[in-house]
Design a protein that fits this description.
Layout (H helix, E strand, L loop, with lengths): L1 H13 L3 H12 L13 H26 L4 H22 L8 H7 L6 H36 L7 H34 L2 H25 L6 H5 L4 H6 L1 H13 L7 H35 L19 H16 L1 H27 L4 E2 L2 H22 L8 H6 L5 H27 L3 E2 L1 H22 L19 H26 L3 H26 L30 H11 L1
Parallel strand pairs: 1-2
Helix pairs in contact: 2-6, 3-6, 3-19, 4-6, 4-7, 4-8, 4-11, 6-7, 7-11, 7-12, 8-14, 11-12, 13-14, 13-17, 14-15, 15-17, 15-18, 15-19, 17-18, 18-20
């Protein structure tokens, strides 16, 4: 199969113009900002590791298909469509501005004999290629096993092939709907607004889309049976949820859609036609306008008005590092996207807890689910901000930090620690306090908040191990670590630890002796980690370029000079040993 696909792709590429092939490869590798990468960056390996994560998810989905396809077919199909649309939405948001030419594209490609339509086509093809890779990696296993099992239920000989065609057509249609919807919104905004206003609004639209995709995925009800889909009280949810439209489309092509749900499939067909036409028209018109406007428009600069005073959180170095981190996070598209991924999950967990409190008629005892949710939110906040700190904001400005280091490295590391505390732990503590107002008794709530605060600071100390750099100033080296191992190991360890911690804490807050023991152990671990990090920071050196470790390979070659007094036979033996 792999050889067949490679042969087909090679045959297609043979008929493409050379300009298209070169630009398509260039734009495909520019999914990651090249200016933020190390000089030793291996982008194909980096993208391949993310593909491996999706393939592993595909295998997990195949297990779910095997167990639930016959008993709950609608629920499983809805889950697969929702997950595919979520992954496609995240990829679309990450490559939000990649469809429009930036200043570098204009300066390099404008003098060349390349038409604007060629640039637009290659950018669209690069984005579509990335979405296609994600679709194949995520749906290969369930997309083959699911149609095979469902096809056994069809009496027709074409049952398996009909379900297979329906599944893949519905998945491609769902991704196409999502992608063209985003393109339509971007194209209309670029067409209507001035270039500077569009650049200012683009970041806000990107964050709104990111939060919307995550929130819909976690908060949308899973209507998995036919009576639930036909219930009148669920009609409004079905009417506004594209996932259910394409669920109906899949079953319509499959031939198993009830007549009462035919209107959902019709809505999917209409939505596809509208967004595809809108994307083609808006992108074509705005692209011709954006090419010239991008070259003539000035860069976005910080405004002179506004609040420039900063709260004092210690020394001037702490204030400077905190202000640099906050402004980098608020102005950089790449950093906003990465951090928004973690914070969107935090928001989804918080909304779930808030919805439970709103439906509660009276104060209730502290449940295990809230304990686990608060631990998850704290972990995501600290780990997300620490992950963003590793991405640079402007490598061209690193020389300023290198030449102005007038204080020891340990003070820079301490300033980074305070920044993590202010922007991750403190907001999560405020959110935990607000979400716990409906729980009683107050003593148990205060005990949990105390454990949560120590847990957050403990995460900061863990995040500061071997972090000898200023946030947003060190180049990023993709492909350095094995993303598959780190991702699945972290998910497994994180899930198990939070479940165990929530269950154990609920027993601990009811016993003064057990609670004191838990607090003592956590404080001891915190003091040990803090002492280790501060002792190591005394001799640490800030670094600004992430490079792979140098490998010295010994060839084992050694030259032995001949002895003139030796016989020719001995000389020949020495020569052969040297070789």
């Amino acid at each position: 199969m792999r050889k067949l696909i490679a042969a087909l792709l090679a045959r297609v590429r043979a008929y493409l113009p050379p300009q298209f092939k070169v630009l398509h490869q260039l734009f495909l590798l520019r999914v990651v900002d090249l200016e933020a990468l190390s000089i030793e960056a291996d982008i194909p390996r980096f993208l391949g590791q993310f593909g491996g994560v999706l393939i592993m998810l595909s295998l997990i989905h195949s297990v779910a298909v095997y167990w639930y396809i016959v008993a709950y077919p609608y629920r499983l199909e809805h889950y697969l469509i929702s997950t595919t649309m979520l992954v496609a939405g995240l990829i679309t948001v990450v490559s939000w501005d990649s469809i429009f030419p930036d200043r570098r594209d204009i300066m390099v490609l404008a003098p060349l004999p390349i038409r604007p339509g060629m640039i637009l086509g290659t950018k669209l093809a690069a984005s579509a290629s990335l979405l296609g890779i994600a679709l194949l990696a995520l749906n290969t296993a369930p997309g083959l096993l699911g149609p095979f099992l469902l096809g056994q239920l069809h009496p027709s000989i074409f049952g398996v092939f009909q379900v297979l065609a329906a599944y893949w057509f519905a998945m491609i249609g769902a991704i196409l709907f999502l992608y063209c919807s985003v393109l339509t919104i971007q194209g209309l905004a670029a067409l209507i607004l001035p270039c500077r206003a569009f650049l200012l609004l683009s970041g806000a639209l990107q964050l709104i889309a990111f939060g919307g995709f995550i929130s819909v995925y976690f908060l949308e009800p899973n209507l998995g049976t036919l009576p639930e889909l036909l219930a009148p009280q669920n009609h409004q949810i079905l009417a506004v949820s594209p996932q259910f439209w394409f669920l109906a489309l899949l079953n319509q092509i499959n031939g198993s859609l009830p007549p009462e749900l035919a209107w959902l499939a019709h809505r999917a067909w209409m939505a596809l036609g509208i967004v595809i036409s809108g994307a083609m028209a808006s992108m074509t018109l705005s692209y011709l306008r954006t090419m010239k406007a991008t070259l003539e428009a000035p860069d976005l600069l910080p405004g002179t008005s506004g609040i420039h005073g900063l709260p004092r959180i210690g020394s001037s170095l702490r204030v400077a590092i905190a202000a640099f981190a906050f402004r980098s996070l608020s102005r950089s598209r790449q950093h906003r996207v990465v951090y928004a991924f973690f914070m969107a999950i935090v928001a989804a967990i918080a909304v779930t807890c808030l919805r439970r409190e709103l439906y509660a008629h009276a104060p209730e005892p502290l449940p295990t689910s809230f304990l686990i949710a608060s631990f998850l939110m704290m972990t995501l906040a600290v780990v997300g901000l620490r992950a963003v700190f590793s991405l640079p904001i402007s490598l061209n400005a690193n020389w300023m930090l290198r030449t102005t280091q007038l204080t020891p490295t340990r003070k820079y590391i301490d300033a980074t620690r305070v920044t993590l505390l202010v922007f991750s732990v403190l907001p999560m503590m405020v959110m935990a306090v607000l979400l716990s107002l409906n729980y009683r008794p107050w003593l148990h709530v205060f005990q949990h908040l105390g454990i949560l605060a120590i847990f957050g600071y403990l995460l900061i100390e863990l995040a500061m191990i071997n972090f000898d750099k200023v946030p947003f100033t060190c180049s990023y080296l993709p492909g350095k670590s094995n993303i598959q191992t780190v991702f699945w190991g972290a998910v497994f360890a994180w899930t198990m630890l939070t479940l165990l911690a929530g269950a154990f804490e609920l027993d601990a807050i009811g016993s003064a002796k057990t609670y004191s023991t838990v607090i003592g152990l956590m404080l001891a671990a915190l003091i040990a980690l803090g002492t280790f990090n501060r002792f190591r920071a005394r001799d640490a050196v800030l670094y600004f370029e992430d490079l792979p470790p140098e490998l010295v390979i010994r060839l084992g070659l050694m030259y032995i000079p001949p002895d003139p007094s030796s016989s020719p036979k001995v000389l020949e033996q020495q020569k052969s040993e040297a070789e």
